[in-house]
Known about the structure:
- The complex is a heterotrimer.
- Chain A is an all-alpha fold.
- Chain A has one domain.
- Chain A is built from nine helices and no strands.
- Chain B is an alpha+beta fold.
- Helices cover 39% and strands 27% of the residues of chain B.
- Chain B has three helices and eight strands.
- The radius of gyration of chain B is 23 Å and the shape is elongated.
- In chain B, 27% of the residues are buried.
- By secondary structure, chain C is mainly alpha-helical.
- Helices cover 68% and strands 2% of the residues of chain C.
- Chain C has nine helices and two strands.
- In chain C, strands 1-2 form a two-stranded antiparallel sheet.
- In chain C, α3 runs antiparallel to α4 and α6 packs antiparallel against α7.
- Chains in contact: A-B, A-C, B-C.
- Chains A and C meet through α2, α4, α7 and α9 of A and α2, α4 and α9 of C.
Amino acid sequence: MNLIIIFISAALINNFVLIQFLGICPFVGVSKKMDSAVSMGLAVTFVMVISAAVTWLIYNLILEPTNMQILEYVSFILVIASLVQLVEMFIKKVSKPLYDSLGIFLPLITTNCAILGLALISVLREYSFIQSVVFAVGAGVGFTLALVIMAGIREELELAPVPKHFKGAGITMIIAGCLGLAFMGFSGLI
Amino acid sequence: MNKSLKMILVLTIITVISGVVLSYWDNFTRPIINEHKTSKLNKLILEILPENNSIEEMKLGEYNLYVGKKDGEIVGIAFKAEGGGYSDIISLIVGMSPDFSKITSLKILSQVETPGLGTKIVDDPSNENPTWFTDQFKNLKIDPEIIYVKNAKPTKENEIQAITGATISSKSVVNLLNTNISKVKKLYIEK
Amino acid sequence: MSKKKVTLIQEFLKGIWKENPILISLLGLCPTLAVTVSAENGLAMGLAATFVVISSSIIVSMLRKIIPSEVRIASFIVIIATFVTIADRFLAAYFPDISSSLGPFIPLIIVNCMILGRQEAFASKNGIGRSFLDAFGVGLGFTLVLVLLGTIRELFGSGTIFGIQVMWDSFHPWAVMILPPGAFLALGLMIGASNWLNELGEKK
């Protein structure tokens, strides 16, 4: 039961992007085209789940027993950065088409605050291993969903008469606000 | 000097220096932070179990029980519980009488309910007593379980009034208490 | 762009308006949106980020000849994460309430593109003095927008500024302003307004 709440909360009710504001940079930057939005969403979800598992192990098996919680941030960011590199190398070896579609997005993921944010929130809420992984899947789904919806709207927007000072970032923010309001309608699902 | 050796060397030195600086800083700040944490927890438990003069921590299944004693006699038991509210997880701490027959006190620790409606479970600025919702739980009988009523004053000893416009938030708190109290009660009696 | 022509004052001022990290470069949006439910939170976040960007810029600028370019990003991240931990623990020790209301957004300064961007684009190529001024300007620009956004949202969402009641008694707070969607709406309008002001400035 708790796992379902965590999943729905991260994906819909407290959507990672629209309500918790994690991963806004790619949300604004990569949501212009539908297909790149889908690839970015998949890449982030993938890295998110792996890094949630690895950072959980590092925190609970190394940092906490040795009382070195102060190194949490330094070690998490190093792990995420090297993980992104590994994933990139791995995908390149295993599947060429997958690499071609995800490849250019992977380096951007290191500085995506959704990944580090997820790891930090899991520690803060004292999630168990399973809970963190479910949380990561939910957050990844939520991120992809927000990105895809936004890309759909922005493709239409290119033809719309937007006031010129609001073109680009301004209107994107306002649309995101409206989407956020819509997502708040999911409250009560759990 | 070999290039990759230099790379490794520089990165290692930077990381080591960072580790040394941080561990010094840790020694300096950790006692202060821990003090905040314990004083916060003590204050909280003192609010929940006011008449205690010693607190014992006890692990029972997934719960951490705080048993308040006065002159060796148990005066109350407090524990934390959490569960789904309207928007996300609500977590609270509840104080029980030693025989688990009634709630002595309730405090909501964290929630992200709808501002202005669901948040009234913590703070209702439109009422003379902003904490009226949680205050209702003081000395509330839980036999057989807590029941909420809508738009009416509670008439029985195990009833509370739900917040208008935030029935789900009110219901969540009640359900959360009912399930967790019965679980803890069972575990505690078995022990 | 010849470096000599940029005076020290310009180095400092450009971060506040012309290259404002939030309004113009759209960097560091996550904390901008998340913590600005009140002016106080905005100020605390802004100051913490300013501290981190200044200290890391100074260190990176000092070490710029030693760090090999292949590991520069990793080194910058370690340096930034170190200062973020220092700032985070400082807040937790001396301002526990602010620290708990900002939650994970203080550690998230590490991945704030604005800070890494300054190291990569400026501090790793310039002297200590200039790097300090550049970081100070950018930090100040960031803080100003955060405080402004926090003030607007707090004013309409709670009727207060820095916790002091300013709206009339019968004013009914617009709850949406302190809810997440209000952050997007307020920032969208601010970006629009700053574009308009920029255009007015150019016409003159």
